[in-house]
Design goal:
Radius of gyration: 21 Å
CATH superfamily of the largest domain: Metal-dependent hydrolases
Largest sheet: 9 strands, mixed
Number of domains: 2
Bound molecules: zinc ion
Helix content: 25-40%
CATH topology of the largest domain: TIM Barrel
Structural class: alpha/beta
Strand content: 15-25%
Number of strands: 19
CATH architecture of the largest domain: Alpha-Beta Barrel
Distance between the termini: 27 Å
CATH class of the largest domain: Alpha Beta
Shape: globular
């Protein structure tokens, strides 16, 4: 057995000073454990022992605008594990003309045999038709309980189609997330900027103002109300959007909300960096104002945000972002973060959130909402041995040159981080130690 000694466990009943034993891929025992001959002992003195962190929103090996994300499942899950994440929920994407069952197979193959952490898939439904609808029960059988639709990009569905998806998911309790931006408005606002000769990255946020998100959040909430279904708002970035969510909850609706660290640490002044540097921060929704940041942080502290994910979607600055040098609308949208989320969250919130809160936002809630609890998201006997031993005394500085993410920059460059994952176990196998991967590819497809 592997025994984690002397740590403070973050359990569903609260903090507990105890040891934890791993047998094969399962948590075998929690308590006062004396190692026997042949047991491997890991010292967690001064550390918190979390159920492995889950990143509920990543894009690995995804084709976007004629290019492919810099991170595939090998480098992406290696980076995730190095930073303390033991499971990612990526998006299998159904392209026009494809079936959702084939899309799942395609994405499972991309991850197979090379994942350093566990991988589950949401299904991004981009071609809604009778066949897609008929395939839903089989997809559920194949382990998919969560879905996503877009209101923007060429993957967008119409309002009517989104309503039909919601209704079709009701019989088996699937949860639908939505990329809430009014795509038609974005297209017009982009055209207006370009017509003025505004081609630099700093015009990107002005083509996707807060109202564009808030309107879409409001619309998606009402579609959920019409269908009598809960909804999941992904990557919330604005105070205006938050107000729409509060209104829907006040009406009695169940609205789950995800936000990301970048929307609570980095503001839109980054788009005005000299030269083309602003392109590094071009993601959608864009980075927002200081006032939005304040509102989102208050919402996290008030318990109004359910999950924190990354929306990791990496493109290299030199080779990929550069495609939009003369037109900001051609910059591939997305930023890297899969490696740094737990540390960045703790940098943002420090002691104003307790370990139990970090556990809830980054492990327990994603496990519950996406159908993995209590196999994942909880330190319990019988749960999967996905475990992150977090050392709050290991202060370090983020450097792109030293990270695992396969991309040439990080928006968190040079920032000092208050703590780091000392040991990261994936299915009972040590996947990373002090930020360095062990090379073990113990990740499995999570059939939910
Ligand atoms: Zn995304």
């Amino acid at each position: 057995m592997k025994i984690i000694k002397n740590g403070i466990l973050i359990t569903p009943e609260g903090e507990k000073r105890a040891d934890l034993a791993i047998k094969d891929s399962i948590i075998a025992e929690i308590g006062d454990i004396s190692p026997a001959d042949g047991d491997e002992v890991y010292d967690a003195g001064g550390c918190y022992v979390y159920p492995g962190f889950i990143d509920g929103h990543t894009h690995l090996d995804l084709e976007v605008a004629g290019t492919v994300t810099a991170d595939d499942f090998e480098s992406g899950t290696r980076a995730a594990a190095a930073g303390g994440t033991t499971c990612v929920v990526d998006f299998a994407t159904q392209y026009k003309g494809d079936t959702i069952l084939n899309a799942l197979e395609t994405w499972k193959k991309k991850a197979e045999g090379k994942s350093h952490c566990n991988v589950a898939f949401h299904m991004a439904v981009c071609d809604w038709n009778e066949k897609t609808k008929a395939d839903l029960p089989a997809l559920r059988e194949a382990g998919v309980t969560s879905f996503k639709v877009y209101m923007a990009y060429d993957t967008a569905l119409t309002d009517n189609e989104i309503l039909e998806v919601l209704e079709a998911l009701r019989p088996f309790g699937g949860i639908l997330g939505c990329h809430c931006e009014n795509g038609a408005l974005v297209t017009e606002l982009q055209k207006a900027q370009l017509a003025e000769g505004h081609t630099e990255p700093r015009w990107h946020p002005l083509s996707r103002p807060a109202e564009v998100e808030a309107e879409a959040v409001n619309r998606f909430c009402y579609l959920g109300a019409l269908a009598g279904m809960p909804v999941n708002i992904v990557h919330l970035s604005t105070k205006l959007g938050l107000e729409e969510i509060r209104a829907a909850r006040k009406r009695g609706q169940t609205v789950y909300v995800e936000s990301c660290p970048q929307y609570m640490l980095l503001d839109d002044s980054n788009y005005s960096r000299p030269g083309f540097e602003g392109a590094k921060y071009v993601c959608s929704p864009p980075l927002r104002s200081k006032e939005d940041i304040r509102a989102l942080k208050e919402a996290v502290l008030a318990g109004e945000i359910d999950t924190i994910a990354t929306d990791h979607c990496s493109f290299s600055y030199a080779g990929q972002k550069i495609a939009g040098k003369d037109d900001f609308t051609k910059i591939p949208n997305g930023a890297p973060g899969i490696e740094h989320r737990p540390a960045v969250m703790m940098k943002i919130f420090g002691d104003s959130l307790k370990p139990a809160d970090y556990c809830r936002l980054m492990s327990e809630n994603p496990a519950r909402i996406f159908g993995m609890y209590p196999k994942k998201g909880a330190l319990l006997t019988g749960s999967d041995a996905d475990i992150t031993v977090w050392d709050p005394a290991d202060v370090w500085t983020v450097r792109a040159a030293e990270m695992q993410q396969n991309v040439d920059y990080t928006p968190f460059e040079g920032m000092e981080m208050p703590g780091r994952a000392k040991y990261v176990f994936v299915n009972g196998i040590l996947a990373a130690e002090c930020g360095r991967p062990t090379g073990a590819t113990a990740g499995r497809y999570v059939c939910r």
